[in-house]
Amino acid sequence: QVQLQESGPGLVKPSQTLSLTCTVSGGSITISYGTWNWIRQSPGKGLEWMGVIHYDGSTYYNPSLKSRTSISRDTSKNQFSLRLNSLIPEDTAVYYCARAEGWGAYDYWGQGTQVSVSS
Fold first, then answer.
1. Which of 5, 67, 68, 74 is deepest in the core (most CB within 10 A)?
2. Model pLDDT for residues 13-23, shown as the tens digit of each residue
C-alpha cells in the first residue's frame, strides 16, 4: 500500500517561497510508470493540478503556474518536493501530493496540508 505524506509550513508571507515535501512509503518513486503530482484546492474552488515529476525524473507543469513552480525529488529519501515562489494571497490552499500511473487517474493521495499566505 503506497502512502504519501505532505510536510511544510502552514503560514508563509507574500513574496516568499513555499517549499513542501511529499514523503512516500510503500513504493519507490522511481518505479515505472509512477507519476508524482502536486495538486491544490483553494477555498471555494476546485482542484488545480500544479505539476508532476515522473518515475524517470522528467517534470511537467501547469502553464499558468510554470513560471513560479519547481518540482524536484530525492530518491535516497523517496521524497519529492514543490517550490512555489513569489507567493500571493491567492496561493492560499490545501496542497496535496498524489500518485498516478502514467497520465491516468490518481490512485493514492496524501491527506493534504493547509498553506496560508498572509502578512
1. 68
2. 999 999 999 99
